[in-house]
Request: fold
Amino acid sequence: MAEAWIIDGVRSPRGRGKSTGSLHHIHPQELLAQVLNALQKRVGFDTSDVDDVIVGNGNSVGDHGACIGRMAVLAAGWPVTAPGVTINRFCGSGQQAVTWAAMGVQAGHQDLVIAGGVESMSRWPAPDGAPDFTSGNAALREMFPMVPQGISADLIATIGGFTREDVDAFALVSQQRAAIAQAEGRFDRSVVPILNPDGTIALAKDEHLRPDTTIESLAGLSASFARLGAHQFKEFDRTFDEMCKQVYPEINGVDHVHHAGNSSGVVDGAGVIMIASPEYAKAHGLKPRARIVMSSVAGAEPVIMLTAPAPASKKCLDRAGMTTKDIDLWEINEAFAAIPLRAMRELGITNENVNVNGGAIALGHPIGGSGPMLMQTALDELERQDKQTALITMCTGGGMGTATIIERM
Ligand SMILES: CC(C)(COP(=O)(O)OP(=O)(O)OC[C@H]1O[C@@H](n2cnc3c(N)ncnc32)[C@H](O)[C@@H]1OP(=O)(O)O)[C@@H](O)C(=O)NCCC(=O)NCCS
Reply:
């Protein structure tokens, strides 16, 4: 198989996903455009060589509508000959963008593809009616009574026996590790400052962290999804908790253990990665940082929804002829604390080499933007520790998981 090389990657800091967040006033097309230009400036590639810009986005409505991939390329001032496309695999969108960029290069169709993702969650339109993954398709809802992700995460904790103490302990480690990583500048290799229209800096480092978190402060937080789980929306004939029990009759009820301190932070952010063929890189004197070894996507039961990181990772390892022992570092997206806890249990790994610089609980999870960000974090850390291989995996809406193995060069 031909190779796809990672030449470099950059990302915005993650801004708090509220109207008071430091990136809220920046249109997501502009946010992504700034990150695209920062990558171009750092690597120095010719934008007229770009075969495509593939952008992951999980909620393509409102400011994220039309085709944000193409619009961001135009907003960046790149030549009109540089195309752009937007793809949606929910939280796995940005990781999928990298996969498809790599596939285009490996298949010999393309030489230089920029893959990335963006989500300004603070600018999502306010929800209209009941949260509904089926978009009003009653027939599909009968087949799969899908519930909001926080409730799926609580269901995972219920079935897996992950207690409130377990998920809080995991969240504390995420905060502690992220605080060390930020203090030591471990994110600096990939983070570029985002500017206001007047050229001043809007944000230069991740701002969702709460380094003063303690196990006591976490214990004091109320469950975020208990009321939602018990609410009877007029659109449905059952509560979300009852839908969980309908599919998983063995449970007595849903144990609502997730809250603001052990769920991924709602944030704004964008990240991009340059993927090139060896021929293009050599012809232009570009030194690769890593190669894409393998990538996989897996599906799983969509009501519990967030259980596919382990199956996707196993598939990826199998196809690469590798085992968990061949992986030096793991990034398992912390959508909610129970997700990496379950994935680690299924993969038979401990958290020693997992999310060593914290994860989305501390740093935030800008849906479409997260995949490239996790890959950059893994690659930066491989270089810092002088290690070779990393596996990045994420759960997604609709019951899927994405996984990618990268290897330093
Ligand atoms: C869980 C969730 C609903 C909480 O939302 P929220 O209440 O707006 O959360 P906030 O981050 O604003 O925190 C609310 C409060 O909790 C407390 N808090 C949050 N994190 C804390 C921590 N680590 N330690 C102590 N207190 C904390 C604070 O009092 C905070 O209020 P403040 O910001 O005024 O200080 C939201 O984070 C969420 O939906 N996350 C998941 C997103 C998602 O589904 N992504 C897709 C995944 S598949």
Summary: The first strand starts at residue 5 and ends at 11. Residues 164-183 form the longest helix (20 residues). The two ends are 17 Å apart (CA to CA). The CA atoms of residues 36 and 199 lie 17 Å apart.
